[in-house]
Amino acid sequence: MDIDADGHSDILSGSYAESGKREEMAGLFQVLRGNSDGTFEKAVPLLGTDNRPLKLPSQQGRSLPTDALCTRPFAIDWDGDGDLDLVVGNFTGSFHIFTGEGRGRFPPQATPLNGPAGPLQLHGDLGGHSDPFVIDFDGDGDLDLLTGSASGGVWWAENGAGPKKLPMLHNLVELIAAPPKDQDVQTRPENVRAPARATRVWAADMNGDGKLDVLVGDNAVLISPARGVSEEEFEKRRAEWTDSMNALRKRMRSARAGESREEELLQLYEKRKEFLIEDRTGFVWLYLRK
Fold first, then answer.
1. Which of 53, 80, 111, 253 has the fewest Cβ atoms within 10 angstroms?
2. 57-68 per-residue burial string, b: 16 or more CB within 10 A, e: under 16
3. pTM exceeding the 0.90 threshold for the entire prediction
4. Could you tell me which residues are beta bridge partners of residue 135?
């Protein structure tokens, strides 16, 4: 998008944290400003109108300001005033908007996006990691909200405000189901049938039929037997390892203050490499609209 309206396309990105310092962990927004020759400047923090880095608000008193981590910006003119606004997701799964003032200027204060009963949020079984994608999904002239989540699936909040107005969102409803809560995050490649967790969403007419289709990215963990390990031995040792991990987690939950099980945990993961190969990857899934 052209965030500063200078005629050149820019790149906008969120970020997980500002620094490695625990007390300063707050996600920023990075912008790579475009040049006339198609190149981009070095990434710099996007500043608010107070000339300070734009940030999401975080609740006080938390050991980590998770409301401000893992920023996920989506730039769009949501209120129809001709200026780009920033719709933003975060680690905890809430949604905010920075209402644009034109040419890449945004106020330092973000406004929470609300549903009928209060702040719109992916929580509980929905997980966190809100990732807003704003588009007129139902074709009624106003802009709706799509999102993935840490737990997987795709969710839709219909906008009831009408065109060229700030959103008045309905509750999130499920468009694409998330994996069952008890489903193992690891799977064999031959068993991949649907999106896993940590979903990200895009909507576009992919087949030219005039209907918006949905693209879903995910985070998949594929496993297979290590070289020289038979299927029978693989399944047996994997079951034994899972029992050992469950027992260790139980001991960790009941550990006394100052008691660490980190070395034991590392040793257990090293042992897993003897029989299992793990490949962390992801897929892009296409859902065609009927």
1. 253
2. bbeeeeeebbbb
3. no
4. 144
